[in-house]
Structure formats: C-alpha cells, structure tokens
Amino acid sequence: MSSDGDPRARMARLAREIERHNRLYYQHDAPEVEDAEYDALFRELQALEAEHGALPDSPTRRVGAAPAEGFAEFEHRVPMLSLDNVMDAEAMRAFDERVRRALDAAEVEYVVEPKLDGAALELVYEDGLLSVGATRGDGRVGEDVTANLRIAGCVPPRLAGPAPERVSVRGEVVMPKAGFARLNARRAARGLETFANPRNTAAGSLRMLHDVDRERLRTIAFRAYALGEGVPQAVRTQSGVLDALSGWGFEVSPERQRCRGVDAVIAAHEALLARREALPIEVDGSVVKVDRLDLQAELGMVSRSPRWAVAFKFPPSQARTTVLAIEVQVGRTGALTPVAKLAPVHVGGVTVTSASLHNQDEIERKDVRVGDTVVVQRAGDVIPQIVEVRRELRPEDTAAFRLPERCPVCGDAAVRLEGEAVTRCTNLDCPAQLENNLLHMASRHALDVEGLGEKLVHQLVSRGLVKRLSDLFALDAAALLELERMGEKSVENLLSQLERARKPTLARLLVALGIRHVGETVAELLAGHFGALDPLLAATQEELLQVEGIGPTIAESVARFFGDARNLEEIERLRELRVEPREQAPRARRAEGGPLEGRTFVLTGTLAGMTRDEAKRRIEAKGGKVTGTVSKKTSYVVAGEAAGSKLERARELGVPVIDQAGLLELLGDGGAA
Fold it and tell me: Same topology for domains 85-313 and 600-667, yes or no?
C-alpha cells in the first residue's frame, strides 16, 4: 500500500503538523493557521485514531507544547487542560444534551464567562504568598515566569483574605486594548516596530529572558477564572470560585452570567458577541461551564479536556479591501507561499495589510487576482485570510496568478510533488532556508552536533561564514573565535563535535540532508536496503519503489532530490570535507513463504541478549513483519523488561502478548537466546 493511502502514515503526518502548530502558538506566539484549520486537522486525527488506535504520545492526549529552553520547568500538580470548541448554537445544544444525558438531568445550570484571548497561567500561593507563576506549557509542565510576573505587578503578591495553605489560581494574561494602543503609540514615537496584536504581545511579554521590556510587562493584566488546588470547603459552584478569587484580590470577568438551561446560555453568548467591540480586552468567544463542582467531578474529563466545559467561539470579524499585489515568500522549509498584499483595513481591532493565500490550489479555488475587491477576516481572531472575492467588482484587465517555476530567492527549480499542495524549492543551499537546514542537519536525530544552536547558526550565516551546508565542515578555529560568545573552549568543543559528525550512519546522513518525507523511519528503510550512499544515489524511482515501506510519494521525493545537480554537488563537497557515511550490510529482505508469513509483531521493552534490530531481522527472516504501532491487526506484542504503553495498548485491544521465550519458540529457536 502506498504511504498516501496508509491511514497510520496519514495519522503520523497529522500529528507532526499539529505539533508544529502547537510550538508556533504556545512557544513562539506566532501562529500560522486559523483556529478553524487547526481544529479540522485535530478532528481528522481524532477520527482516524478512533478507527485505527491512537498513536504513541499523540497530540490528542496532550495540551499545548513543551516548555521552551531557557526557563526553569514547573510541573503542574493538577494538569492544565484545554477546552473543546463549539462553533454555533446547534453544536452548543449537542454539548448540553451530552451533559444532561450523562447526569440524567432535565436541565443544567451553567456559568458563561468571556473566552479571553491571551495566555493561560497558573499562580501558586503558599501561606497566602505568591510562590510560583508558570505558563501552561504542555498542560503538565510549564515555564516558571515568576520573575517577569513580579516586574509586571499584575497579580497580587499576597492573598487579601483567609485561604487554604496552598492555593493554585488559574487565569489568563491579557493586554487591555487601551494599554496596547498606548504601548504601540509610544513605540512608534521612538521609531520602534509596533506589535501586531494584544494576544501575542501579552503572551510574549512573560517569556522574555534577556533585555526585559518593563514597559511592555507593566501593560499586561491578569484575569482569574479557576482553582487548580485549594478550593475552600464552603465553595460548591464555579460562581463561588469566582467570588472567592475576587475576595482574594484577583480581577475576574464582570461579564460572567449564571444561566439555567442551554437557551439562556445561547442568549448570554449572543449578548456578549453584541458587546464584543466595547469590551476592554480581546474576547474570542464564551466559556460555558457546568456551575456545580460536584457535577463537574461526576462528568470528569477525557485526556486533554473536561466534559463539563466547552469554548463557544465567536464568528470571525470581517472587512472589505483591495488586493494590491501578490508576492511569493520562501519559508524556512523551502515552501513557496503566495501572499496577497492588501490596502490597509481595520479588522477586529488590528490593521491588516496582507493575507496568506497558502498554495496554488487555494489561489485557484478562490480565484484571487491583483486588483480584486475581497472580504478579509481575522480567522480565529489571529490570522488574516481572504474569505470572498467580489467578482462583480473585478477590473477587466486582471489575470490569473500562478506560482513561479523557479524559486524567487535562489533561482533553483520549484517543485510540487504529486499528491501535495505545497510547492517547494529543493535547493539545499537556498539562502531563505539555509539557517533552518543547518539546524536540522545538526539536530539530535541527524548529525547530532551539540552546541550548534539558533544564535550561533544565525551568526554563521549572517556573517557569511556559512553560505551552503557543506561550509559547516570547512570552519576553522580562527573564524569561530571572532563570533560572539565563542571562547577557545566553546570553539574546541564545536570542532570536536563536527569531527565526530563526519562519520554518521547512512540513515543519519539521509535525515540530515532534509529530503522531503525522509524522517528517521524512512531513512532506516533506505539505508537498510541499499547499505551505502552510492547505490542509493544511482537508484531510479522504480528501484526506490522496490524498497519495502516506500510508496510513490516518497520515491518521487528521493529521486527528485538526488536528481538535482546542486544537491549532488553539495553531497560531493561534503565528501571532499571527509563527511562520509559508514557502510552497512544491506538488510535481508523479508522471507517469502516463511513460517511467520502473514503475522505482524510489535516489540516493546528490553530483550535479554538481543537488540530490537536483531529481533526484527530474525522475525523478517522467517517471513514475519515488525511494525511500531499496536492495532487490532497486530498478531503478537513481544514484551521485554520495562515494557511501556504498547503493552497497555495490547491489553486494551485484546492482542496476544508473549515474552522473549515465546518469541524464540515462534522463531524455532527453543529456549536458546
């Protein structure tokens, strides 16, 4: 089966894409897609997992993204969950029906609060004094931002009234609209770049490590809305929680309402929407919670969200403007992205001057042209997008737009693989993606060059020391010593790391080259089949298709990459600089007609005297197949010492579990190790 038709391959791709968007949103405060597009990806992954079993460490089981480097980690004693979304009254009624059915109740009382457009935060108070302030992070581990919070002065350093010994307050860091306008006005007056929107400005302010902007920090505010720990015994409802928070000195949303039944919830949501522009802070919907805490506990939660609360989202704001030009930007991964440059227009509190058109298919679907009058919305109240072209207002001399056939930055061929929406520059050394490619080459799963981080890579590229990937291995001590924060010991360590990286495995080199669709698993398949670099370089697309586990999309991508003269030139220069992968014996192909033919195995834990790779080879030599994920189609899970989540998944699905002795018996090796 090709990788395109393999549901688990699709699940893996969705998981990677969702993780990338999580990092952009939670770590970098720079989302690329609107909420609706993210939600669609998330729902597709959930649907596939419901049918085929969840991926190990799936993003559907987690919240947000891991903490960024540079901050101390803080573990939330009670996980900070996310909320499921509903987009309209019909979906809200469906949520209410599920709640009432679970509680066997004719009607439920809810609390409706504004959904604040900021960044989630937990504050821990011990004996009434602020101890720690931490971001949500991935829901279980966040970043300790206490120092910046103390500078900001937006949270009480001491609780105003009697409270339990330890209290965990949850809420949102926001930037009031008026403060945001004043901050930008002052920055503009000093000739500084203004901030894009209140949400990113508020979230980013807490995560400043160096050169802390005190003016920016002093502009943020905090609104409390929940307790993770320390609910007073007398408090029985969410309304009571908000009253307790207010009594301790926190600002809570004055717009909150108690509503009996779903009709009242919908009415409160619509009233809040009508007042949206007049509110002092950015709000992108309502949060609807079952009011009684005992009923919340009865309803419980799923892996990443409670069953007793939901986010009821507002429709995005819209405005009309004109397309002045369509420019093509080349991203850090080589993707060519068409961007509509717009006549400035005010949408949802922000001046919009551009909107991504994503790819050629999107341009053709919407038929956006220079000179068109278009309707723009801030989807998810963050990313501007064109939602409608007013064709009746189109000038007569417009022309359809097509992406160029060559990269506008380096002039190399721009390629769109079959079955993909994105057109990419395939040149390893394209200046637009060089820094990203260098970081990828140095990453743990590639050449694993410790010490080669973002700041050093930026210096190497910006100073012209590295103009192509291979230049990395031509660096010398004299050039490196001229860089900031590079002393003799740092230079010695980096050169030592680069020397070690000159003899990678073939699989690691393939990952390092950044070939589209070639991650660790595919690289191992290619390395195991060809054994050395030269046979792989000479392989045709048809020969690549003979590799077990390689489908048409991957074969086309690899063949195109090694068919590019610039890439071959770069590989040859790497060899001249003594970067040469270690050869390995080609892996034996799975035996046809062996005693284990038709049986699928999953390995978990540690086997005595046998590596997993050796166990895999022995199973395949007998005709069996080894995969990495447990499903109902798995024949056996082989559980060694310290078996993990795969063993639990096997028990959930009723898949037979055998130990090492059982595996050896199936292999015909009796009890011998």
Answer: no
pLDDT band at 570 (very low <50, low <70, confident <90, very high): very high
- Distance CA(110)–CA(609), nearest Å, equals 59
Class of the CATH-defined domain 506-576 = mainly alpha
Identify the CA nearest to 222 among candidates 172, 269, 261, 186. 172
CA atoms of 165 and 423, how far apart (whole Å): 58
Angle subtended at Cα 193 by Cα 187 and Cα 195, rounded to the nearest 5 degrees: 85
Q: Among all residues, which ones are annotated catalytic?
A: 115
Instruction: Output the CATH code of domain 3-61.
Output: 1.10.287.610
With 0.85 as the threshold, say if the pTM is over it. Answer: no
Contact, 534 vs 580, CB < 8 A?
Answer: no
Of the candidates 167, 175, 172, 165, which has an alpha carbon nearest to the alpha carbon of residue 132? Answer: 167
**Virtual torsion, Cα 440, 446, 448, 454, nearest 10 deg:** 0
Contact 429, 435 (CB under 8 A): no
Fold observed for domain 318-393: OB fold (Dihydrolipoamide Acetyltransferase, E2P) (2.40.50)
Contacts of 201 (CB under 8 A, 6+ apart): 175, 180, 183, 195, 216, 219
Distances (CA, A) of 4 to 48, 244, 426, 573: 14, 54, 21, 34
* Lowest mean pLDDT segment, chosen from 272-286, 385-399, 481-495, 603-617: 603-617
Can you give the residue ranges of every domain in the chain? Answer: 3-61, 85-313, 318-393, 506-576, 600-667
Chain-centre distance for alpha carbon 472: 28
Provide the pairing of β-strand 335-347 with 423-425.
antiparallel
170 is written with which tokens?
A: 């949850």
Q: Give counts: helices (H), strands (E), the chain.
A: 24, 22
Q: Among candidates 40, 6, 17, which has minimal Cα distance to 631?
A: 6
- Whether CATH 3.30.470.30 fits 85-313: yes
Fold (CATH) for 600-667 = Rossmann fold (3.40.50)
Q: Quote the radius of gyration of the chain (alpha carbons, Å).
A: 28
Q: How far apart are CA 176 and CA 605, in angstroms?
A: 52
Residue % of the chain over a pLDDT of 90: 47
Q: What Å distances lie between residue 630 and 207, 562, 613, CA to CA?
A: 39, 34, 18
Residue reference for tokens 């072209």? 389
Find all residues with CB under 8 Å of 631, minimum gap 6, and list them: 8, 52, 53, 653
Cα(313)–Cα(495) distance, rounded to whole angstroms?
52
Cα 162 from Cα 539, distance rounded (Å): 74
